[in-house]
Amino acid sequence: MYLVVKAKTSQEVFEQMAPKIGEYLRITQIKVSPANNNPQEWYVSFECDPESVKMPEQSDMSVFLRRIRRMNEVMQVGFNDSPTDLTVSRLEAFYRIISEEVDEAKGMINGALVNDNNVNLVDLSDWLGDIIVFCASEAGRWGIPILQVLKLIMDSQDSKLDENGKPIHKDGKFMKGPNYQPPEPAIEKLLKSLTEVSHEQSS
User: Fold this and answer.
1) Taking a C-beta distance cutoff of 8 angstroms, is the pair 181, 199 a contact?
2) What would the CATH number be for the domain defined by 58-144?
3) Residue 75 CB contacts under 8 Å (≥ 6 apart), including other chains
4) Domain assignments of the chain as residue spans, ordered by start
5) Model confidence over 19-31: pLDDT tens digits?
6) Model confidence pLDDT, tens digit, residues 89-147
7) How far is the first Cα of the chain from the last one, in angstroms, to the nearest whole number?
8) d(CA 193, CA 36)
9) Helix (H, G, I), strand (E, B), or coil: what is residue 180?
10) Is the separation of the CB atoms in 136 and 64 below 8 Å?
11) What pairs with residue 34 in β-bridges?
């Protein structure tokens, strides 16, 4: 299992987080490493007894991802717990699938044009939801922790703001602020951390 927590030192992580995690899980191993080039942010990966009890109420997003995993397993399309390269052939296959799904917007656009430019919100909701399901399922296949990746991307989006927390507009575009941090380095570090943990567990 994996968390990102804020603390000044790794010792503080152990002192503050381990007891809280221990309220719900019997931890058998825990590892802490720096995150995102931020001295106050740490990756915490840990193993626990699968028979642990007293789990806290799950968030809607956690429930959604658990159902995605179950869907992948039932449909026998695969689900990996650590970053896994499925090769370019799988990427090409997913590109074809998601392209076909995105193209369905054309039907909604044409429908709106003959209906006083009114978009059918039911169709739009279903279309957007399908795309999210496709992407979450695909992330599971590749062992990509999509919630953590989304957090890092949103952190990057926040860093585009100016020093007063305001968006910077120029020629109708949303510009990057002076403190902008691209998400790729943080994502790379996240995936590397998870891969190292997976190798340690298998050795």
Assistant:
1) no
2) 1.10.287
3) none
4) 1-56, 58-144, 147-203
5) 555 544 454 555 6
6) 999 999 999 999 999 999 999 999 999 999 999 999 999 999 999 999 999 999 999 99
7) 18
8) 11
9) coil
10) yes
11) 42
pTM (2 d.p.): 0.68
Return the SS3 of 175: strand
Closest CA to 31 of 5, 49, 8: 5
What is the spatial distance between Cα 91 and Cα 95, in angstroms, rounded to a whole number?
6
**Per-position DSSP letters for 27-65, written without gaps between them:** EEEEEEEEETTEEEEEEEEEEE-TT---PPPPPHHHHHH
Report yes or no: 182 and 156 within 8 Å, Cβ to Cβ.
yes
3-state secondary structure 67-86: HHHHHHHHCCCCCCCCCCCC
Amino acid at 29: Q
Average pLDDT of the residues of the chain: 81
> Pick from 38, 31, 37: which is nearest to 3 by CA?
31
